[in-house]
């Protein structure tokens, strides 16, 4: 994805939809900062070219090779933070696994068959019970309101 020399003053909001990008060029733009989370979900990004004033997202630890020349900085080979020898700042809770979520970013995914807050619930979500209760409550409330409010309706 070549966004070089596009006169970008900030990261375009549509960039979040390009998470499948492998190569991204943002050089020759008057960018002053990269907001945290700008590259959330960019797990396939292997080469990122930035203006010299900007640092690689996630820091140099998130990339295998960081080079700088007179006008640009090149970040190559995104590292998997889950395979790092450095202790994670927020370890994943029990019953979950670490997964990369962009340069220097990670997410914790619940392992099968766990789900819910901190992956503490085992099994599947009780969809039939939830739908039954929600449907019954909706129909009951609708009938109650129809019965109590129909006398206020004008008859012709």
Characterize the structure shown:
The protein is α+β, with helices and mostly antiparallel strands and 156 residues long. The chain has a domain at 13-78. Helix content is 15%, strand content 22%. The protein has 1 helix and 8 strands. The chain has one helix spanning 127-149, and strands at 23-25, 47-51, 63-68, 72-78, 96-100, 106-110, 114-115, 121-122. The protein has a 4-stranded mixed sheet with strand order 1-2-4-3, with no helix packed on it. Strands 5-6 form a two-stranded antiparallel sheet. Strand 5 and strand 6 (106-110) form a beta hairpin. The chain is elongated and about 80 Å long. The mean pLDDT is 89.
């Amino acid at each position: 994805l070549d966004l070089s020399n596009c006169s970008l003053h900030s990261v375009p909001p549509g960039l979040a939809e390009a998470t499948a990008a492998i190569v991204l060029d943002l050089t020759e733009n008057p960018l002053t900062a990269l907001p945290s989370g700008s590259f959330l979900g960019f797990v396939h990004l292997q080469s990122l070219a930035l203006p010299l004033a900007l640092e690689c997202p996630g820091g140099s630890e998130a990339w295998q090779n960081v080079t700088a020349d007179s006008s640009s900085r090149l970040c190559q080979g995104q590292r998997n933070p889950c395979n790092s020898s450095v202790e994670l700042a927020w370890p994943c809770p029990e019953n979950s696994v670490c997964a990369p979520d962009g340069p220097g970013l990670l997410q914790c995914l619940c392992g099968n068959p766990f789900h819910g807050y901190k992956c503490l619930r085992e099994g599947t979500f009780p969809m039939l019970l939830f739908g039954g209760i929600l449907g019954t409550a909706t129909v009951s409330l609708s009938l109650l309101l129809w019965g109590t409010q129909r006398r206020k309706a004008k008859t012709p």
